[in-house]
Amino acid sequence: MPASSSTGTSSRLLLLLSLLQVRRHWPGDALARRLGVSERTVRRDVDRLRELDYPVQAVKGPDGGYRLEAGSRLPPLLFDDEQAIALAVALRIAVGTGAGIGEAAARALATVRQVLPSRLRRRVDTLEITAVGSAGRGGGPPIDTGVLLALSAAIRSAEEVRFDYRSPTRPDDAGLRPPRRVRPHHLVVRSGRWYLVGWDPERAEWRIYRADRMTLRVPNGPRFTPRQVPGGDVAAFLSARFKGSEDADAWPCQGEVILGLPAARVAPFAADGLVEELGPARTRLLTGSWSWAALAATLAGFGAEIEVVGPDPLRDAFAELSDRARRAAGAAGD
């Protein structure tokens, strides 16, 4: 049924405008279903948007419907609550990415905040996000904005969080175990994925959790006194943990080789390794991995002649890799 109050009509108009902004063309019956009203009410709402100078065009025919025409005279765009929060999250991430737009993103965030209603401004103000490296890339899994806001609020108020956690190996066991307790310190976005960095009081150690695997419990736990992550830099701490190191932001296994390839072919796949051109088809590469076996396998993936400069554990790893490859080739030939 159509909403009868002016507040309901305004909310519906905002939702209608939001739908028209995200899709090129909407059939009238599809809009009616999304809005929960009749097609006649949709036509009236479209007329109201036109009165506000939004260029909504009606398309006739079997595939008829409505579309919002872009152009220089388009009035300021409106956002519903979810879009406003999503925009604030994106701008907060952009502030810390180091992509050359941090200052502009900070100004844009301040502008957006000023025009938000008080209820949304309070939610935006709770955002505590650290962007690490290529935060905007990676196509990570979807995550409920409410989870990000709840974790941000817990970080700001220094309150323990309780949550069920879905393990990647046992995703159905989340609700069968006691909820986990963590003192949240940083909400980090890295390569499109969201992570919570916190102190586990039961294990007395720092832990990292994927936020998309968390199902929060309410209410939060007791307040705590925040502490610093080891080294005081959450970006370096997270990078070190992903490299398998407990402290320094460096691979635990590092080696040096000379590859029979031009440097231009090595550099795009060297990640954070150091590349030095030695000749038209000789390149020195200093790189690392979380294990010697993984490092040898990564270097073998270049598909070129390899001269190991050092250290000896890398030579041993190549010998073991060679033995395994020989056994695999023998088994295939039997």
TrEMBL record:
<dbReference type="InterPro" id="IPR051534">
    <property type="entry name" value="CBASS_pafABC_assoc_protein"/>
</dbReference>
<dbReference type="InterPro" id="IPR036390">
    <property type="entry name" value="WH_DNA-bd_sf"/>
</dbReference>
<dbReference type="InterPro" id="IPR036388">
    <property type="entry name" value="WH-like_DNA-bd_sf"/>
</dbReference>
<dbReference type="InterPro" id="IPR026881">
    <property type="entry name" value="WYL_dom"/>
</dbReference>
<dbReference type="InterPro" id="IPR028349">
    <property type="entry name" value="PafC-like"/>
</dbReference>
<protein>
    <submittedName>
        <fullName>Putative DNA-binding transcriptional regulator YafY</fullName>
    </submittedName>
</protein>
<dbReference type="Pfam" id="PF13280">
    <property type="entry name" value="WYL"/>
</dbReference>
<dbReference type="InterPro" id="IPR001034">
    <property type="entry name" value="DeoR_HTH"/>
</dbReference>
<feature type="domain" description="HTH deoR-type">
    <location>
        <begin position="9"/>
        <end position="68"/>
    </location>
</feature>
<dbReference type="GO" id="GO:0003700">
    <property type="term" value="F:DNA-binding transcription factor activity"/>
</dbReference>
<keyword id="KW-0238">DNA-binding</keyword>
<keyword id="KW-0804">Transcription</keyword>
<dbReference type="InterPro" id="IPR013196">
    <property type="entry name" value="HTH_11"/>
</dbReference>
<dbReference type="Pfam" id="PF08279">
    <property type="entry name" value="HTH_11"/>
</dbReference>
<dbReference type="GO" id="GO:0003677">
    <property type="term" value="F:DNA binding"/>
</dbReference>
<dbReference type="InterPro" id="IPR018356">
    <property type="entry name" value="Tscrpt_reg_HTH_DeoR_CS"/>
</dbReference>
<keyword id="KW-0805">Transcription regulation</keyword>
